[in-house]
Every structure is written in structure tokens, then in C-alpha cells.
Amino acid sequence: MEETISLQDLFKTLKKRMLLILLTTFLAVAVAGVISFFVLTPIYQSSTQILVNQEKVDVTTLNSQDIETNLQLINTYNVIIKSPAILSKVIEELDLDTTPAALTNQITVKNEQESQVVNITVQDANPHKAVDIANTTASVFQREITNLMNVNNVSILTPALLGENPSPVKPDPMLNMAIAAVIGLMLGVGIAFLLEYLDTTVKNEQDVEDLLNLPILGLISPISEKDNMNSKVKVKPRRKR
Known about the structure:
By secondary structure, the chain is an alpha+beta fold. It is 55% helix and 11% strand. The protein has 2 domains: 10-37 and 172-233, no CATH class; 44-55 and 63-158, EIF_2_alpha (Alpha-Beta Plaits), CATH 3.30.70.1130. InterPro entries: Bact_polysacc_biosynth/exp (IPR050445), GNVR (IPR032807), LPS_length_determ_N (IPR003856). It is found in: Cell membrane.
């Protein structure tokens, strides 16, 4: 005979273990908050934009192949910006204690919606350093691309600036705590159902009937100690004559 669990039993289990579920959720949120605010290092972000100018061509003769060539050229520039040929000079100019490979992980380069504008985004624990790296990378690339590809079609469109009160882009404590709340809630519910499944104690007559697969013929009501004392007082032994 298959054992089925009704929706009512599920709600009873959740209600019974509600304190455990709430405690697990609160603990997960507290841990995420402590880690986000006091353990993880804040990371700041700064961006600069460079413009890749097209060579002067006759608009009437511009075809899809020319457009594709320009896009490929921009993609080539994106690779060159993060190459050691550029980043090693950035490290040298800023006297950074890092390597080109490590600096590459801090820099993101992408063109703006298949346009001629290229965004250089830098993330660093120091907001001032993030701005310096972004601007220096753009200026070094503008200078070195002339020697690398014998072209002079790059100009800095928007330099990186440091705001008055820069705020970190990560970690996001509120987001981390919200995710932790969901995970803690799921974990608490899982533990509640696991404890209920592992609990094999007999609690009522229904558990006895399910365990023995036999019908219940009668019940013995519990007798409290007070009722037991009252019954002894009421029953008086007969005196012998």
C-alpha cells in the first residue's frame, strides 16, 4: 500500500517546523550580510570611451564589405588594447605592482552596439587607480597603435572621471542578502521535511494503525496524577464490624 502525503500534512509539517525555517533563513541572511559588508573587498569601476574614425571614403561607393572591414578593425583594436604590448606600458607608466595577465582580468573592452565607439572599463579596489588605469590605457593605445598598425584614426572621446562619492559596483549587499534569504528558506524547508521523514516515533492512534496495519479496537485515556489522587480519596475501604 503506497504512502501518500496530503497537502494538509505538508502544511502541518511547515507549521510545526516554522521556527527552524525562520532561524535558518535569518542565519543565512546574517552570514551573507556580514560577508558582504565586512569580508568582501569593495570593487570600483571606471570607464573611458575611444572613437575609431573611419578613413575618408566616398559614401556612394561604401558597401557591406567596407562596413564589415571596419567592424573587423574595431574587433582587432579590442584585442590589442588588452595585449601585453599595451598593458605592459600602462603598468610601467603607473608603476603598478601587477602583471599584464593580471591587469587583463580587470579590464573589459567592447564596442558600443556595433559602432565605432569602444568602451574601456576598469575595475579595481581603489577608485582613483581605476580611473588612472582606464585613462592611461586609452592614451597608451592611442599612441602605440600608430606604430603597431601604422594608422592614426583613434581619438579619446570621453575620459574616465572620478565622482565625488564613488560607490562600489560589487559586492551588492542587498542582492547577496536576498539570494541568501531564498537559499536559507529552501534549506530550512528541506531540513524540516527531512526531520519529519526521519522521525519514526509513534505519536497517535493513526500512527499505530499505519505501523501495525491493524484496526484500533479501543483507546486508553491518559490519567493525570490529580485525577488519580481524587479517585483514591473518593474510594473508602469498608470497616470491619
